[in-house]
Design goal:
This protein has a single domain, classed as Lipid/polyisoprenoid-binding, YceI-like (Lipocalin). Helices cover about 5% and strands about 60% of the residues. It is built from one helix and eleven strands; from the N terminus they run E-E-E-E-E-E-H-E-E-E-E-E.
């Protein structure tokens, strides 16, 4: 029987970013500043990973205070009633040397949908303090409307203000727990 290995996300060396089209012609990049997550594997076998992740919706940051407040409101995330977005993995399938398909259930604003993301293993290192660390880059796309983020507006010329497709760009550094 193999030993369980536990890891936690190192928030100081990780970032959770998203991009969305604005007025169809430009892209707005945002991030969640407060998040946490754990990964548990059987020994060193990454395909056995059980991943739990959550982000505080109120920590959303798009570099523009008014827009952030609008995103926290009932028009979008409704942070007051749905303070966290969560992800629970359902499978991690090796697709190449260091690449994986990460499947899981994403819950935003009380709506849970299955998603599949691309994950790339960046390797493992021991830092100056003797801690084992591992890095991953995770990318994917989701439809915001599928998660109840349906607010929409059009410009006078008929252009869409906010696109439906959200691109996720996540860089995670994990710290192995003793």
């Amino acid at each position: 029987m193999s030993t369980k290995t536990s890891w936690v996300i190192d928030p100081t060396h990780s970032e959770i970013q998203f991009k969305v089209k604005h007025l169809v012609i430009s892209t707005v990049t945002g991030s969640f500043k407060t998040f946490e997550g754990t990964v548990e594997t059987d020994g060193e076998d990454l395909t056995t990973a059980n991943i739990q992740f959550s982000a505080d919706v109120a920590s959303i940051d798009t570099n523009q205070t008014q827009r952030d407040e609008h995103l926290r409101s009932g028009d979008f995330f409704d942070a007051e009633n749905y303070p966290k977005l969560t992800f629970t993995s359902t499978g991690l399938e090796k697709t190449g040397e260091d690449t994986y398909k990460l499947a899981g259930d994403l819950t935003i604003k009380g709506t849970t949908k299955p998603v599949v993301l691309e994950a790339e293993y960046g390797g493992a290192m021991t830092d100056f303090y003797g801690q084992s660390k591992a890095g991953f880059e995770i990318n994917g796309k989701i439809s915001r409307k599928e998660f109840g983020l349906t607010w929409s507006a059009t410009t006078e010329a008929g252009g869409v203000v906010v696109g439906d497709e959200i691109k996720l760009a996540i860089n995670i550094q994990l710290i192995k727990q003793a």
